[in-house]
Every structure is written in structure tokens, then in C-alpha cells.
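Continuing the batch. This is chain 6 of the set; chains 1 through 5 are on the previous pages. Same settings as before, nothing changed between runs. Recording input and output for traceability.
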Amino acid sequence: MIRVLLVDDQSMVRTGFRTILESEDGIAVVGEAQNGQIAIDRAIELTPDVICMDVQMPVMDGLAATAEIVRRDIGSAVLMLTTFDRDDFLFEALAAGAGGFLLKTAEAEQLIDAIKALASGDGLLSPEVTRRVIERSVHAPAATAQPSPALDLLTEREQEVLRLLATGLSNAEIAGRLHLGEATVKTHVSNLLAKLGIRDRTHAVIWAYENGVVRVGESAPTT
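Output for chain 6:
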């Protein structure tokens, strides 16, 4: 069962999300909060698997709350939800440690899929958001540099998995490409995240582009 905490200052929004999520087998809404400070307290108390976090709220906004939840290492993945399609919110959310970013206008199925992806350890960015992240990354000074020395910490296989992950392939797709079991790929992903000190797949993709592991327009290599 995936345990979800809903955080939004509007009760009608929380009710709407609760209705959507509780209609899905395998997902349970374990709590709600109307601002970031209460969200931190509830996260500590309930240790949910996924926190659906609004950005703009009174008392403490979702960005500050996410940063604090990540700092406390509660073990909850944060899915940032916002009405506003703004790059500053997106990049601040990722910098705070959010594992995914979704507009509130997304379809119910997209919300459910996002929660399941985060609960399974996958980051979640829509294709449009991914494109904007990559565009921002390639204009960073590090994007034109040689691959980071930190790559030397990874085995050849882990480097291969990182490159495929950064080009947008899922664990199942990587497994098919490398002729490995999906569980083996997931282990490689966990290992490379730990070695690089990266929180999740979303931030691994950003790291890969910023450190020259892959370039914009580069497709997944064939084997």
C-alpha cells in the first residue's frame, strides 16, 4: 500500500485529490496538511511514502517544506504540484529535493502514475519539464566540461545504466537494452545514486547533463 500525505492550503483541492487517489487500489491517503509547517510535522508523524506538495501556501511554502523534509531524511518522496507553469518553481523544487513536478491540470491517471513512480524509487518529470531542465542544464558552465571525475566511482555497467537512464529510458527499457533483469537494473540505479550522492533518478538525469555524461539530442545507444 502506498501511503500518501496531501499538502495544499485549499481544502477543496485536497478533497479532490483524496477522491482521485482513494479510488485507486494500492493507494491510501493517510493525512492532510494546509501549509508547509504542518506538512513537516505530519511527515515526521506519519512517514508517508509520497507527499503531494503544493508550492504556494501561507506560513511556510512547499519549497521550504520540501527542503526541510529532505534535510530530515524522513524517507518520503515529494511530488510538487502547482497551478503555475513557471520555470522558477520547477528549478527551485528540484533544488529543494522534490522527486517530481506535476501541474494540477494533469489528468487523474498522470497523478496516480506519478505517485506510483515515486513510491517505487523513480523520479518523475513530464517530457515538457524534462526538456526545460535539460535546456537549463546545458547552459550551465559544467555542461561544456569533460565528464566529472565522480564517474570513476562507478563500474562500467553503472555508467552504462546512467547514460541510458539520462536519455529517458525506464528500468524495464534499460533491462531490455542491456539484456538484464529489471531487478538487476534497479540495483545498479540504487548503487550509482549512492556513489554519486544523488537523491533519485530525476536528479541523476540533471547530474548527467550538467556533468557532460550525455549531451542534448543524444539518443540511447544500442548494444
